[in-house]
Specification:
259 residues, alpha/beta, Rossmann fold, Double Stranded RNA Binding Domain, 5-stranded parallel beta sheet, 7 strands
Length: 259
């Protein structure tokens, strides 16, 4: 019998949390109130193409976005002609106080095999909206699997406080977030390693992961194109930040294709 290895234990009953790329995808929101407004903002932040079906818009923020033409508004009560295979919707969100119409939207989406979320009805949701902490490219989602959204918001506030304290400690009051700069620079490092270093994916990932683990947020945020070039020249070794010397980089900066 093979020796039992200590792998992570399966925890059934969770949701598959992924960062779904909604850019350019057509999404339907049914409703014109406060819940719909929050859903529309989430979709617009993900660069989705948003269509709202509602006889009226009763939320000030949503009305403002309508005036700015940030989404398409179909001014009508929902009927199944608004949701057909020919419409090519990738996602359907029902944000209504009317259980009967919400059920109609749900049944239609299910029949078309389109992922659907019915606000405040977990049993009719293929996915949930968690509470999001956002700082530029950094997104942290807190989900209670549809059970306690109020607690998810409370946990998000705690995370916000942690990051704000970190910024105050290391960011020195700069206008751009130190964490955002660090994330952007790690993205540049990953691209540079892919373009310059000819090796397997495991070695590249180990190099980038090592930098993230051994260097502070502030050190990573202070990198520029020259120091990134110097860093790549040390591959596969991970130098100390203090040992970088961009003037002696062995890899010409024009070969890195950092953009």
């Amino acid at each position: 019998m093979a020796e039992t290895q200590k792998f992570e234990k399966v925890q059934p009953g969770g949701s598959l949390i992924v960062a779904w790329q909604a850019r350019g995808k057509r999404c339907l929101v049914v409703g014109g109130g406060e819940v719909a407004s929050g859903r529309v903002l989430a979709l617009l932040n993900a660069d989705a193409e948003v269509v709202v079906v509602s006889p009226a818009i009763t939320n000030a923020e949503l009305e403002n976005r309508r005036e700015l033409k940030e989404f398409i508004w179909i001014k009508a009560p929902y009927n199944d002609d608004h949701l057909t295979a020919e419409d090519n919707y990738n996602l359907v969100l029902s944000c209504l106080d009317d259980p009967e119409v919400s059920d109609q939207v749900w049944r239609r989406a299910v029949s078309l095999k389109i992922p659907v979320n019915v606000a405040d009805v977990p049993a009719k949701c293929d996915f949930y909206f968690g509470s999001i902490y956002r700082d530029g490219p950094l997104q942290i989602m807190i989900s209670t699997n549809g059970k306690a959204p109020g607690l998810a918001r409370k946990i998000r506030k705690e995370i916000t406080n942690i990051f704000e304290d970190k910024e105050a400690e290391e960011g020195e009051g700069e206008s751009d977030s130190m964490i955002t700069k660090a994330i952007d620079n790690v993205g540049k490092i990953r691209q540079a390693v892919r373009n310059v270093v000819k090796c397997d994916i495991k070695a590249r990932m180990a190099f980038v992961s090592g930098i993230c683990e051994k260097w502070s947020f502030k050190q990573i945020s202070l990198l520029n194109d020259d120091s990134i070039a110097d860093l790549i020249a040390h591959f596969p070794d991970i130098p100390k930040y203090e040992d970088l010397d961009s003037q002696t980089a062995e890899v010409p900066i024009h070969t890195l294709k950092l953009a």
